[in-house]
Amino acid sequence: MQAQVSVEGEAVSTGTFAISRKDERISDIIQRAGGLNPYADAAGAILIRKTEFSQARSPAQISQARLERLKAKILNPADGSLNSEAQARLKERLQALENTLDNNTGDDAQGGQLKRELLEEAAERDSLLADIEIREEEPVAIDLEEILQAPGSKYDLIVQAGDVISIPGRMQTVRIAGEVSSP
To answer: What is the mean pLDDT of residues 55-66?
Structure first.
């Protein structure tokens, strides 16, 4: 499964886009989305990025969980039957796959989970830490106008799996405050 980025709001074509290169940038994704529609407020656009505390699982982690369930079924069959020669070969294959996945699973996700647990444990012991909010995603300020004018510039960030580019619409209202001569 490929890493993906979502575009929401006032783009010509909103939706989910696969990241095709490691150096793919916001401008590349917006271009693939057909650009901005006439109602877009580029100045109000934000990038929503997952933090290290995100609970999202990578494809490798999902595969790892499936393998663990399958391995448990093979090692402990429900009917209590003994393992056959075919089951032994299957166990060997699963072990080889498991070793491959162990080397490819995201250390970031495991590290994020460990950080989360340590913060929660510290919050239980110290009441001053109890109000700390652990966010799974955070907004990142972007200058979409500058990004579209100068693709590849320092403002044009490289996208990451799970990013959401959110483009609001222009405000179509007028606000009047104070005294007016006619209601």
So the answer is: 57
